[in-house]
């Protein structure tokens, strides 16, 4: 589900339940609590004080039986419909039965004003997901045959499937394997799984792995490895892009210089979390620290330049 679909689903759920908590919603949506929290913030922007927060992490809708009556009369109605339509105008059919005359106008406005050019989302055979979802729900181990980066088939025995993860336009199975590397934690691209066999034996929940999945900022991030800080100097010609967008969750602007340059920090534990970003913005970006990262960048650049000779 995309964000608009999740927000619509939340509206439906709040009509049926007196109270919903983020952990409960995350399980229903097969996502993490951080994603649910962002969806709740979107919903709160439209519903205002009609969305109650009686306890930490839990929400309720005031006069839930009158939800659609409230939306009909609310001044934010058009904004809400525009948000939904930006993802897919077909989603507005949910409201057509409630006779919102503004819907046709919103469809017209969105077609005239917006073009959303998103990265293509990886196609995924949903039948392939069913045994994976069952393994996650029932905490059952599995055996996987997988095509690795060298296009060789590798077998992972007795893995612990933790979560289905959508990241960077692709679908992954986050799992704890018996491999020594990265304490066994892996993101397995679901389309590269050739066989997924459920086993009868179960496992205890991997709470550390679940917390990592909720907080990770990059598929390159190492599991259970200490982090360190990276400091970059961004020149004024591209500073505005970093001021309006976080390229990684840990991004912090720590200094804005009089000439328009900015100093930005990131917290990482794998050079590959940050190197693609740095290379993308050459020559308008400079590594201030740490020195090993500066050295790695010089080596990569020298290697690339040697291919041009």
How does this structure look, described?
By secondary structure, the chain is an alpha+beta fold. The protein has three domains: 3-113, Arc Repressor Mutant, subunit A (Orthogonal Bundle); 126-213, SH3 type barrels (Roll), CATH 2.30.30; 228-306, Alpha-Beta Plaits (2-Layer Sandwich). It has twelve helices and twelve strands. The protein has helices at residues 3-16, 22-29, 33-47, 67-73, 77-87, 93-96, 103-113, 126-138, 207-215, 239-244, 275-280, 291-306, and strands at residues 20-21, 51-55, 58-61, 140-147, 153-167, 170-176, 185-189, 193-202, 228-234, 252-256, 262-268, 285-289. The protein has a five-stranded antiparallel sheet with strand order 7-6-5-4-8. Strands 10-11-9-12 form a four-stranded antiparallel sheet. A three-stranded antiparallel sheet has the order 1-3-2. It is globular and about 65 Å long. 20% of the residues are buried. The mean pLDDT is 84.
Distance between the termini: 48 Å
Range of strand content: 25-35%
Radius of gyration: 23 Å
Question: How many β-strand runs?
Answer: 12
Q: Quaternary arrangement of the chains shown? A: single chain
